[in-house]
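hey
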């Protein structure tokens, strides 16, 4: 890994990615909310089916 981190292109890539916000925060938020929504929907649906004897 030290060979890769010493490469000038890798250092430039890190500098560019650190300075550029990009869609990363928005995309991460959308993914987290989507996963939580799917879990909540599954819980509601499974709760309705499992509670009846």
């Amino acid at each position: 890994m030290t060979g890769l981190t010493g490469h000038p292109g890798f250092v430039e890539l890190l500098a560019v990615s650190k300075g550029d916000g990009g869609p990363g925060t928005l995309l991460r938020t959308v993914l987290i909310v989507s996963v939580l929504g799917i879990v909540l929907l599954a819980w509601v649906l499974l709760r309705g089916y499992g509670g009846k004897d």
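The chain has a mean pLDDT of 76. Residues 21-53 form one domain.
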